[in-house]
Amino acid sequence: MALLTGKSACVLGVANRWSIATAIARALHAHGASLVLTYEGERTREDVEKLAAELGGAPTTAADVASDESLDALASFLGTAVGKLDILMHSLAFARKEELSGKFFSTSRAGFGTALDISAYSLVALCQRLAPMLGERASVMAMTYLGSVRAVRNYNVMGVAKAALESSVRYLAEDFGQMGGVRVNAISAGPIKTASARAVGDFTKILSEVAAKSPLRRNATAEDVANVAVFLASDLSSAITGQVLYVDAGYNILGIV
Ligand SMILES: NC(=O)c1ccc[n+]([C@@H]2O[C@H](COP(=O)([O-])OP(=O)(O)OC[C@H]3O[C@@H](n4cnc5c(N)ncnc54)[C@H](O)[C@@H]3O)[C@@H](O)[C@H]2O)c1
Hints:
alpha/beta, 7 strands, binds nicotinamide-adenine-dinucleotide
C-alpha cells in the first residue's frame, strides 16, 4: 500500500514547474495522498490548475498568506473540500529583491517586516486557522534554508525570516503535539534553481560552490526534497517533530575542508 493512502494534503507554494512545491505535490500524489493546491494570485493560477489536473483533478483555490481574509477563505474552502487535513505543506517565502543583495545592515524596516510576515508569520497564521481540521497524527511541514543559522552571502533578511520560521516550527510542535499528536517539522533544502532562488544575488555561484564542496559533490534536487516530505508526511516519521531536516547533500556539516 502507498505510504499516504487515505491522507489528504494541502500544498501551498506552487508557482511553476520549477517550484519545490511542484515536486512535493507530485510525490505526495504518487504516494497516494489526495491533494488541494493553492495559488498566490492570478499570475500563478494557470500553472497551478494545470498541475492539479495532472494530479487527479485536485481542487485549487487562491491563498495569499499576506491577507487574513484570504487565509479565512482558505480555511473555509478546505472545510468543505476535505473536512479533515492530514498533511499541510508550507513551501513559500518572499523578500523584496533589493533586500537580497548587498549589506544586511541596509535592510529597510518595511522590507524586514514583509519578509518576516510572509515567510514566517504565515505558518503561524495558517496553523491558527487550520488547527481544528488537522487530523490525528497530521503532519505540518515548512521549507527553510541554512541561511537561518549561518551568514550566507546575499541571503540577508531571508535568513532572519528563516530563523523565525524554524523557531515557530518548534513552538508549533510543542502546541500541536498535545493536540492529537500533530507533528510540525521543517526541511532545510540546499540551493535549487527556482524563481525565488534566482532573486538572491549571485545565486548561481552559491549553487556551484555547494556542488563543489558538499560531501555528495552535487546539489540536492527538488525531488530529493520531495522524497523527504513524503517521509515526514507519513507515519514512518511518527516520533519526529520540531526538527529541521537538512536535504542539502551534506553541505551543512562542513567546517574547513
Ligand atoms: N530554491 C531554493 O534554493 C530553496 C532552498 C531552501 C529553501 N527554499 C524554500 O522553499 C520554499 C519554496 O520556494 P521555491 O524555491 O520553490 O521558489 P518558488 O518561487 O517556486 O516558490 C515560492 C512560492 O512562494 C509563493 N508566495 C510568495 N508570496 C506569497 C504570498 N503572499 N501568499 C502565498 N504564496 C506566496 C509564490 O507564489 C511561490 O509559489 C520557500 O520557502 C523557499 O524559501 C528554497
